Structure formats: C-alpha cells, structure tokens
Amino acid sequence: MNFLRNLLASILGTLIALGIIFMFFLLIMTAATAGAEPVVRVKDNSVLRISLQGVVPDYGGQYRIDDLDFEFEEYIGLNHLVRAIDHAATDDRIKGITIENSMIQSGSATTQTLRKALQRFKESGKFIYAYADLYTQKDYWMASVADSVFLNPQGIFDFRGLSSEVLFFGDFQEKSGLRMEVVRHGKYKSAVEPFLGNAMSNENRKQISELLEGLWSVYLEDISNSRGIPVKTLNTYADNLAARTPFMAAENGLTDGVLYADEYKNLLKTTMGLDTDDDIRTIDLEDYAESTARLRSKTGDRIAVVYAQGDIGYGKGSNDMIAQGIMYESLQDAREDSRVKAIVLRVNSPGGLALTSDLIWREVEVTQKVKPVVISMGNYAASGGYYIAAAGDRIFAEPTTITGSIGVFATIPNVRELAAKWGINAEQVNTNKNSTAYSLFEAPSESFLKYSKESIEENYNHFLQVVAEGRGMTPEEVNEVAQGRVWSGVQAREKGLVDELGSLDDAVAYAAQLVEVADYVTVDYPVYESNFADALSDLGIGFFDTKEELLKEELGEEVYQLMMKIKHMAGMKGVQARLPYELKIQ
Fold it and tell me: What's the pLDDT at 545?
C-alpha cells in the first residue's frame, strides 16, 4: 500500500508541476505580447490602497532569463512605489489613498521614505485615510500622516517605545563544546560579542541605546507634527501604555475613532460622494506602480541609479546579495552609456566580506573619475556598506539610516571540546610548520592568532585610509568615529561621515544639478540574469518543500532563526566588514 500511495503521489506531483510550468509559459507569452501597454487598467474615481505586509526592498529588480530570451521587472521595490504615490497626486483618476498596513517589516528608512511620499501626496488636496486591525509602532508611524486614522474596536495598538534584544552564547559554548574563536578590531565591533560572554558590554549598550533614542525621536517628531500631540506627551503615553486599547488610543488623540471594516468602507464612500450600496473602486499600490512605470519616458538624458542591496558576498551577486560581478557590470554599463550623465549608488547593506567591499569600492572610485557618483543610503549602509560608499562625491542618508560601523572582524568555529566529549581525536601530518593553517578540532596556534590579528589590523587600517581619502579627513580623525561604532544618519552627519540628510530623490536631484541637467529620466540597475530553473525557484515554484521550509515547520520560526544565525556566523569566510550586531527593533 505504501508503494502504491507513493506512486500515486509522485504521479500527482508531476502533473501539478507540469501544470505550473505550463502556466508559467502562458504568463511569459502573455507578457511578451503585451508590449508597452499598461497591464493594469486604472478606472476613474479610484482609491489607491496601500497594504504593505512584508519587506519592501529598495529595488524590485529587472530580470533576464537567458535560456528563454525573456525579460521582466518586479514593481514591488521602493523605487516604483514612491514614484507611483507621487504620480497619483496628479492623476485625476485617483481620488485619495487608504492605508491598510499590518505588520510592515521594512526598515525605518524605507518607512520614512514612504511616509514622506504620502506627505507630498497630501499637498495635492486629496484625502488620505488609514485603517487597521493591528497597529505596530512602525505601521502607526506611517499611518499617522493620514487625515484620519481608525482602528478596529477589538484591535491592537502597540505604542510603548523601541527595544532591541541581543542573544549571548557564552554558557551555551561552555556546555556544548562548540565555540567561536574571535579576532576583531574596534571596541564597538560587537557582532562577535555574543560569542565572548554572557552579558552586553557598556560600549555596546551605549551605542544601541543612543541609536534607539535617535530613531524613536524621529518617530515621535513625525507623529507629533501630524497628530498635534507634543513629543513629551507622546513619551508619557508610551511609558504608561496609554493606548493599550483601541478606545484609549482614540481618547488620547492617537486615532480618530474605532470602526469595523464595513463602517470604514462606508466612511470612504461618504467621502467620495457614493451611496452605501455603491462599490469602491480600489487599486493596490503595487499594481498602480506597474501601470505608472510603463508610462514613464525612456528617452533623453539619464541619471543612473545603481542599487546595492543585501549582504556583501563574493561572486556574481543577486537581488539580495551584493557581489562584485553584478556591481562591476552595472557601474561599467552606466559609465559607458553616453546618455547617462551621472550615477547615484543606492546602498542598503549591513556589510559583509571585506574583500568584496574593497573590490566594489575600487570600481566606484574608477567610475567616479569618469562621471559623478552620488551616494544614497537606505535602511543600512554599515561597515562594508559604508566602505563601498566612501568613494562617492557626496553622501546622502536618511535620519534613520544605520551607518558607520567602520571596523572588521573574523569568526572561526571550533569544536575541540565537543569532539573530546564525543571521543573524537584529530591528527595532522604536515610538510611545513604552518601547513595546517587551522583545524576545527585543535586549539588555534599562536602563529595562527598572530597572523589573523595582522590581517585584521591591515584591513582595519586600509578601511580607515579609504574613508579618510573619501571624506577629506585624516586616518586619526576617522579612527575617532570608527572602532566599529554605528551611528544614525543624524549622528553620522554630525561626525562628518555623511554630507546631507535626504532621500533617494534628493540624491538624484543633486546628481542632476552637478551635471547641470534639468530634463532627465532615471534608469535602474542591475539587471539580474538567471535561467529557467532559477526563475521557477524565485517565483516559489518547486517540486518539493525546501529543507528550510521543513525546518521552520518543525522548529518554529524563532528557533529556526536562532539556528540560522549561529550557522551564518560559523560559515563566514574571510575578514568581515559587517554591522556590529543583528539589530531587530521592536
């Protein structure tokens, strides 16, 4: 019976997979025949609906499937969403915006950029209303820009201030026998601190505290300006959990009332002059972004926007990993295109491999000698992310950007104690004194630690020199704000690491001004190349659940993420220029 059941399951799985592949090809054929006409039709008297529940990348990406000679673009990136909101302000078909976010997971800089776009939209005189069953603090920060904010009567309103939690593995290493050997430079380089003890250092606590206070002050100032509630009062509300119920939130002026979803829809209808029996024409922001993008002109002078988003690794690169392959190609294409007059490098990265950071920095420096390169920083431009930005002509950061972290480290897993518990002994045979550079099963030798420290020091000093040359400072001056310390965008400007506070649009406008171009269009890079099998995987189409999905199901999300964090640290190869800790702000 098991054989028959498995056989039938295999046949069914194959048929489903073939059906999915057929639908994928049908999608390709439909897209190929669509031409430049908008796929999404925007009807008159529509409301633009914003409901962003996941991570919003800076750049959705352009993709080329080589073996099918097929190209497509994702319109879920911040670049297209902001352009869409700006376009909606002048689109007579769009009468207003409804914000219906729940559990947005994007960074503070991304959220702030969207909020600023909504603020610009309000200047058109069109309405913005917001509604949710649940407001996280980041959801509410964005929604507070609305003319009116409503919450479900049985909903949840989270307003308590920001916090961050860091896990430490000192005792775990002692008990398990699995430990990390750490080599670092920078007293704030605390990505490795969880493996050095069981408590947070004063330096680390100080930088996290200052960073959270800086971000929270931005949240409060924006909410205060929109809702007319003094910052001091908002802090009192947070301390006393004075918005812990929907009715308390309304009583204290954080919302404009409690409504069920059908009542909120009727409010929108009244605002638009509709009867309660009429339907509201809504269009989701992602769909509207696609429609808007297809209408943009592609002629004339250009400002290239090159997106560098994700961890920094080695190799070709992808839509969530920065590597030298895709960055070389993008920067070279932009500087060799005579229509491109200037380049904006949009950096959204916590850093990564120091080698790749240096390779990309050099390519930016080469490009900067041909055409102006202006830097725009997103949620993160830390460590290796800041490294690749240092060669820019001018650096823009959002107030909430996490940047700096000028420092390097290396972590090397060691299992000698665990192996001893299991009765495992490793023996080496060498031709030379240092033939065995390092063994997982032996204590690191003095020469290994010495040479590793030399490598760390060399990388750190080169990092200082790169920043010093780019910022017009001495290495000694850079060292004063380095040591692996992270800063908010506001702090970074005060320390000389950033030139201006502003958005990607501000950086683009500055780049155009540098080359004295008034009439221009922006073009986005990179174009990510893949094959048919990779495209199916990217679209979530596969024959079997991945091992990651199975582990998540068995272990639960939190335990899985903890396990992956340890695995990630253990798998780091080479010297790292990386954000000093995994900062999860709640």
Answer: 46
pLDDT tens string 494-505? 999 999 999 999
Q: Which amino acid is present at 293? A: A
With beta carbons less than 8 A apart as the criterion, state whether 308 and 345 touch.
yes
Determine if the pTM surpasses 0.90. Answer: no
Q: What's the rounded Cα separation, in Å, for the pair 429 and 45?
A: 78
62-65, strands of its sheet edge to edge:
70-73, 62-65, 527-530
Within 10 angstroms of residue 39's Cβ, the number of other Cβ atoms is: 12
First to last CA, the chain: 51
User: Per-residue pLDDT tens for 162-219?
Assistant: 998 888 888 888 888 888 888 877 666 566 788 778 888 888 888 889 999 999 999 9
Whether residue 526 is preceded by a cis peptide bond, meaning omega within 30 degrees of 0, is yes
Domains of the chain: 42-159+241-292 (3.90.226.10), 297-578 (3.90.226.10)
Q: Which residues are catalytic?
A: 189, 383
- Give φ, ψ of 306 to 5 degrees: -100, 120
- Is residue 486 within 8 Å of 404, Cβ to Cβ? yes
CB 524 within 8 Å of CB 62: yes
